[in-house]
Specification:
By secondary structure, the protein is an alpha/beta fold. It folds into 2 domains: 191 residues, inorganic pyrophosphatase (n-terminal core) (Alpha-Beta Complex), CATH 3.90.1640.10; 118 residues, Diaminopimelate Epimerase, Chain A, domain 1 (Roll). It is built from 11 helices and 12 strands. The two termini are 35 Å apart. The structure holds manganese (II) ion. The site of manganese (II) ion has 6 residues, from loops. Manganese (II) ion binds next to loops.
Length: 316
């Protein structure tokens, strides 16, 4: 963290007054939104940008914060000194970021081999449950205003999946953030954990109906195929199963995307499994040990079979 702090201060020092863009990943989630919001306030001449659209939780929080953002595809990189990216480590979820001068990267994902975003100041802590927590630590809760503290607390709740993971430090910082925000936990929970719409809930129920199960070595694995909301289906399935792999066919790209989740008691790194599965078909994969994803240009059933095969091989 010390080195990260040094790099963060150097980034601030060099770019504080420059015209920069703070950007998060495609389908920006609560952690990406709160991180971009709080970081952008440290750079008074910055604007916030995301590629395409946000996810539902990200949308709700950004509305609450009154966050203004631009589509990355619509910005002209020549008009800015550079890009600072948050909550993202590879270009897979930031295609439009290619060719930009990336001056900073603040993130909590494992650095991938392929498609890696390289920045002048790289501030990465793959052991940290959220980018929000990295920022709370780097900026210091005492230097945040109540809106910043509220926003980051939402990121803590969201990226720990309501504290399914987290460290002692996570809880210490969260208590400080709540105090600083002047809010009760339940008020923050409303924005930190987005209640899915009926539509999404129906998709989740559908995912359960189509689920197939495998018991291997005492571990219950569930797979399913859905038309959308694969990460919500995957998260819901793993409330019951020990591991879930949910595939979606993306017709435009002629590829399968898989979202996977793992129960806390299992110590098999899903990000490695997803990377291996996707790369075996020439695709990309990665993420976190308990929540990961991957995509490759093969049929959903083929990709799911590969994920399960690799997963089971790690259980032996
Ligand atoms: Mn995150």
């Amino acid at each position: 963290m010390q080195d990260n702090k040094k790099r963060f201060l150097a980034l601030l020092e060099e770019y504080k007054d420059k015209k920069i863009v703070v950007a998060g990943h495609r389908n920006a989630d609560i952690d990406a939104v709160c991180s971009a919001y709080v970081l952008s306030k440290r750079f008074p001449n910055s604007i916030i940008s995301f590629p395409e659209k946000m996810d539902e939780g990200g949308k709700k929080l950004s509305k609450k914060l009154g966050l203004k953002w631009f589509k990355l595809e619509e910005l002209k990189k020549e008009e800015f000194e550079g890009l600072v990216v948050v909550d993202i480590t590879s270009y897979t979820l930031l295609e439009g970021g290619k060719g930009w001068n990336v001056v900073g990267l603040i993130d909590h994902h494992h650095r991938p081999e392929k498609n890696k975003i390289e920045a002048i100041y790289e501030i990465v802590d793959a052991d940290c449950p959220s980018t929000a927590e990295i920022l709370a630590e780097l900026i210091g809760v005492e230097n945040l205003d109540s809106d910043d503290a509220f926003a980051l607390a939402c990121g803590f709740i969201s990226d720990t999946a309501r504290f399914k993971n987290g460290k002692t430090r996570t809880f210490e910082l969260l208590a400080q953030l709540l105090r600083k925000a002047g809010r009760e936990y339940l008020e923050v929970l409303e924005f930190g954990e987005h209640e899915p719409s009926i539509d999404v809930k129906l998709k989740i129920m559908d995912g359960f109906k189509r689920a197939r199960t495998i018991v291997y070595s005492g571990v219950l694995i569930a797979t399913s195929v859905c038309e959308s909301n694969e990460s919500s289906v995957s998260s819901a399935l793993v409330d019951v199963a020990d591991a879930a792999f949910v595939a979606k066919w993306v017709a435009d790209e002629k590829e399968t995307r898989v979202s996977s989740r793992l129960k806390k008691h299992l110590d098999v790194p899903l990000n490695d499994i997803m990377r291996e599965a996707a790369e075996s078909f020439g695709g990309n994969g990665g993420g976190h040990p308990k929540a990961a994803g991957g995509s490759a240009k093969v049929e959903p059933s083929v990709m799911l079979e590969k994920c399960v095969e690799i997963f089971c091989s790690k259980l032996d």
